[in-house]
Amino acid sequence: MPSAYHAVGNALRHTLEQRVRAAHAPEQSELAAHFQAAGRRIDYDRYAEVFTVSYLLANYWKVAHALHRASPEPRASVVDLGGGSGAATWAALAWLASSEDAVAEPEVRLIDRSAAQLELARELSRAVAAALPRLRPRIFMRQADVSDSLDAPEDSLILLSHVLTENQRRIGDLLTAAAVTSANGELLVVERHDDRVWGRISVAARGLDRSHEIEELEVEQNALMILPFAGGRTGRLRTGWMLLSRPKYPAVARIVARYFHAWRAKDPSLLADVFATDAQYFFDPLASPLSGLSAIAEYWTQKVVPQNQLKISLHAVDLEAESAKISWTARFVREGVETTVCGAMSLEVDSRIERVTALRERYQTQRRPVIPT
């Protein structure tokens, strides 16, 4: 392994050793019991420190070895979904620091729902930065659910490390959203090698029409756990990883990504990068279509811009050479009404100019008044 990985690993270890305390012993036992109980949701704010001290180094080395083995193309943007205190993020920075082709100032986005884990990530980021003086990453941390308003540059490397096992019912949605967001990039999935979740991951990955291969990996690293009562586990650690490559139809994938980026941004001005000037927009099977970019932008100004607290989940994406089919759910508040819209759309695309020439959508809407708290 290149020296950058060891420099980051040592920096993480030194920082975490400052947080070892006797109170971690019972918390570590409670946390281990949570992992053994299928379906139980872990309170990562409560167990943030003991989880990080117990498992971050092991997860760091898993992702580090997977990146070293996969050798994806260096990216200017890395997104760590459900990254907790940043194990995969720090491995990605070590990977970039080891690459001759990496940019000097990569953008890294770490997204997690736990405020306590993100606070630990901020502390660890300073140690990692000191260990990689030639790399000047721009690190952005955001507290959010992994599937809410996912957005990133089209050519990002998206990391899903030990997050799909905890979100088994949403594996297809999460992989689809990540694949659409990173339309021109790649996805790295890392989970425990013996998790039954790999069957579901494989099925979802095949539906994305990206080449991939699941591989088991043995990581040899001393003292992966630094808690005194944990015994400082040594020897080999097995993990599984999968890299999803670029899509088969990148032009169409980019158009889909731009459409949902414009929607999440609620910005009609971005539609010029999505629709052809004479595009048709079929929003109602009983009405005439909107015709032309100006009419579509005006429709968005009336219908999309007022959508507050907007959250979009993607469920399935089917790409062809000149078309795409997408199913989705959107939730938002407009004029004091909570609205859930479940829809499906088809896009006709001119891949030469990377613009949508026709959009057809069907949807069902549920509304309920917002109840003041």
Q: What does this molecule look like?
A:
By secondary structure, this protein is an alpha/beta fold. A hairpin with a 4-residue loop joins strand 12 and strand 13. The chain contains nine helices and 13 strands. It folds into two domains: 3-244, Vaccinia Virus protein VP39 (Rossmann fold, 3-Layer(aba) Sandwich); 250-369, Roll (Nuclear Transport Factor 2, Chain: A), CATH 3.10.450. 34% of the residues lie in helices and 29% in strands. It has helices at 3-17, 24-36, 48-70, 87-97, 115-131, 171-181, 197-207, 250-265, 293-303, and strands spanning 77-81, 107-112, 138-143, 157-161, 186-192, 214-220, 236-244, 275-282, 290-291, 308-319, 323-334, 337-350, 355-369. The mean pLDDT is 88.
| CATH architecture descriptor name of the largest domain | 3-Layer(aba) Sandwich
Low-confidence spans: none
The average pLDDT is 88
Total beta-strand segments? 13
Q: How many separate domains? A: 2
Indicate the structural class: alpha/beta
Main CATH class of the largest domain: Alpha Beta
CATH superfamily of the largest domain: Vaccinia Virus protein VP39
Compute the number of helices.
9
Oligomer: single chain
Helix content: 25-40%
CATH topology of the largest domain: Rossmann fold
Give Rg in angstroms.
22 Å
* Largest pleated sheet: 7 strands, mixed
**Global geometry:** globular
Task: Summarize, please.
This protein has 373 residues and is of the alpha/beta class. Helices cover 34% and strands 29% of the residues.
